[in-house]
C-alpha cells in the first residue's frame, strides 16, 4: 500500500512538471496577443500563416520581439520542417512581411 502511494505521488509530480511548460506557453500566447492588439500589430494567427507559407512545418515556439533602437516589432517563429530541421522565421508585426528565414544550427 505504501509503495503504491509513493508511486502515485511520483507519477503525479512528473505529470505536473510536464504540463507546466504548456501552461506557461498559453500565458505567453495571451501576452503576445494583448501586446499586439495594444500596439495595432497584425494578429498572431496572421503572422503564423505568413511564417508557415515561407517555411512549411510545425510551429515549435513563437515570441514577439522588439527590434533594436525602436525600429519595430517582429514575430519570431521557431519552425520544425518535415526533416526535423529547426528554422527561425521573422515576420514584421506591423506589415506582415517575412523579414528573414534562417536555419537554427544550435
Summarize, please.
The protein has 106 residues and is an alpha+beta fold. 46% of the residues lie in helices and 28% in strands. A 4-stranded antiparallel sheet has the order 1-2-3-4.
Which keywords apply here?
alpha+beta, Nuclear Transport Factor 2, Chain: A, single chain, 28% strand, 4 strands, 106 residues, 4-stranded antiparallel sheet
Description:
Helix content is 46%, strand content 28%. The chain has 106 residues and is an alpha+beta fold. The chain has a single domain, classed as Nuclear Transport Factor 2, Chain: A (Roll). The chain has a 4-stranded antiparallel beta sheet. β1 (58-66) and β2 (73-80) form a beta hairpin. Residues 1-25 form the signal peptide.
List the helices and strands and how they pair.
Elements: H1 2-39, H2 44-54, E1 58-66, E2 73-80, E3 86-92, E4 98-103
Antiparallel strand pairs: 1-2, 2-3, 3-4
Number of helices in the DSSP assignment: 2
The top-level CATH class is Alpha Beta
CATH architecture: Roll
Q: And the CATH topology?
A: Nuclear Transport Factor 2, Chain: A
Low-pLDDT runs: 8-24
Strand order of the largest sheet: 1-2-3-4
Amino acid at each position: 500500500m505504501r509503495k503504491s502511494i509513493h508511486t502515485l505521488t511520483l507519477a503525479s509530480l512528473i505529470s505536473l512538471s510536464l504540463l507546466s511548460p504548456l501552461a506557461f506557453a498559453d500565458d505567453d500566447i495571451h501576452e503576445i496577443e494583448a501586446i499586439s492588439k495594444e500596439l495595432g500589430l497584425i494578429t498572431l494567427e496572421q503572422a503564423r500563416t505568413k511564417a508557415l507559407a515561407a517555411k512549411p512545418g510545425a510551429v515549435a515556439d513563437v515570441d514577439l520581439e522588439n527590434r533594436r533602437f525602436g525600429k519595430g516589432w517582429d514575430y519570431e517563429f521557431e519552425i520544425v520542417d518535415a526533416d526535423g530541421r529547426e528554422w527561425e522565421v521573422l515576420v514584421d508585426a506591423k506589415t506582415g512581411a517575412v523579414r528573414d528565414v534562417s536555419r537554427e544550427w544550435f
